[in-house]
Amino acid sequence: MDSASSSKTSTRSTAKRTLEDKSDEASSCAICLDKLTSAGLHKPVCLKCGHIFGEHCLKRWILTENENGTSSCPLCNTKAILKDLRVLYAENVVTVDHTAEITAVERKLKEATHAKHLMEMEVERWRSNAETLDTEAKRLKRLLYDGHTEPAACQRTFTVCKNQSCGVMAYNKNNRMLVMSQQSDTTTLDSYVIRKMDVQLMRLSNEYICAHKKEIRDMVFHPLHDHLLASVGLDSQINLTDLNIDTVVSSMSVPEPLWSCCWAGDNTHVLVVGSQTGSVYYVDRRCMKIFNCEKTQNLGCVSLNILPPSSSRSFKNGGFLKARMDHLSVLEETVDNDYYTYRETELPLTGLWSSTSYDCQSNLVLTSARPSGPFHTDRHIVSKFANFNEEGPVLSQVVTFYGRAKSTQIYRSCLVPSSGGYNADPLVCCYDEESGTIDVFNINKKKHVHDFKVNDCILDLCPLPDITIQGRRTIAGLSKNTLSIFSV
Questions:
Q1: Please, are residues 284 and 305 in contact by the beta-carbon 8 Å criterion?
Q2: Residue 470 and residue 150: Cα distance in Å, rounded?
Q3: Which residues make Cβ contacts (< 8 Å) with residue 462, sequence separation at least 6?
């Protein structure tokens, strides 16, 4: 037997004797102190000196000591190289159960997944906060811009007709359509027509809808059907026009000229019409028939306003506000009857009334009166329905704004509802004939805040909800031949 064989035999004998005599050393690695395994990277190996280690730990030790693969035993400092490693197959090597390790790894994975989920939630929360702050920053910039650099102003003016014949307006905020009445400019059509305008695009239509033979005195959109427009005129006609096809689809006549109309608040099939003598007609639009009539011989019914039904307000059943030139009243549906009858209650205000308007959001009522009797100037009275009791509605006055003495014809004023932001208190806008201005009053501050100098008499004023110009609310003003858009 040569010397190399003798050396190998000696090494194996030493390793075997070491395993037999030192079972504790054979069960763990002297470098990492972890249990040795019967297979895999941590199976037992020994050096010439007989010390036992895990294979992976010993290889890393030798390579770390010297990149050439030479080192020394971690225990006795005997010179060792990679070629000296001998794998041991010993009966008393302990086999490690990896179940605990797998369980630990799975637990760490779950913890990491949970931590990731928490981080994602935190990121989403901060993203939401950033969006909120960005929105608030834009709002504050807009308020700063609107409040200090952009005053109220006349933004656009459109020529509607050449023959000085414009009359009244109506606005539908759902489709942002404004309609106005005028006499036809063409000599072939001897009629009064309806003209449309897309307020969002500020585009005036070139098409005309022939509706009445004489002057149109009032128009109102249906509360549910945005394309359906009711109109009444001095030709005693009641028309329903479909604006999708620009055609009058239903029509009927009464024995006298008509001045005003509105939909009944409690029933959207009922159109209420006021006449030149103060009479009121109730029309079922489904068959265009009058089912009730209150005939009078008084001053004309200048204005009718819908009072929508609501459990949160005092007029739960709905109805309408009626204004004759000499009389104000509220008509509410009486629930004891089967078919659309109304109880009328006179309101405790006196004056020569020219127009009324109502805002259901704020429950405010605007009643405008011309100079008469002890009152020598125009008055614009803002009131609020406080309650409905057994005796009828309770009307509480909020503030009265005064104009000037000259008022030769009927002008329509308007309420501009609050928009809920900075400089957005509810407003009253009205035309003052003597000064030739549109006056703007702030209801909450109870004072005059602005006026627009205009060249023509403004016959009708109409708020344009949800239409803003540089953050300001807008109104439309109609003269005899022009339409103007104002930012207030």
A1: no
A2: 7
A3: 169, 170, 171, 178, 412, 414, 475, 476, 477, 478
Residue 94 burial (10 A CB sphere; 0-12, 13-18, 19+): middle
**Does residue 386 contact residue 353 with C-beta atoms inside 8 Å?**
no
Cβ proximity of 416 and 466 under 8 Å: no
Instruction: Give the integer Cα–Cα distance in Å for 232 and 386.
Output: 32
Alpha carbon 486 to its chain's center? 23
Q: pTM for this one?
A: 0.69
Per-residue pLDDT tens digits of the chain, which is 488 residues long: 444 444 444 444 444 444 444 445 567 888 888 888 877 788 899 998 989 899 889 888 888 866 666 788 988 988 888 888 888 876 555 555 567 778 888 888 888 988 888 898 889 889 888 988 888 877 776 665 554 456 888 999 999 998 899 999 999 999 999 999 999 887 667 799 999 999 989 999 988 999 999 999 999 999 999 999 999 999 999 999 999 999 999 999 999 999 999 998 778 899 999 999 999 999 999 999 998 999 999 999 999 999 887 665 566 677 899 999 999 999 887 766 556 678 888 998 999 999 999 998 888 999 999 999 899 999 999 999 876 655 667 788 999 999 998 888 899 999 999 876 555 789 999 999 999 999 999 999 999 999 999 999 999 999 999 888 887 899 999 999 999 999 98
Distance CA 109, CA 115 (A): 10
Residue identified by tokens 């019409």 is: 273
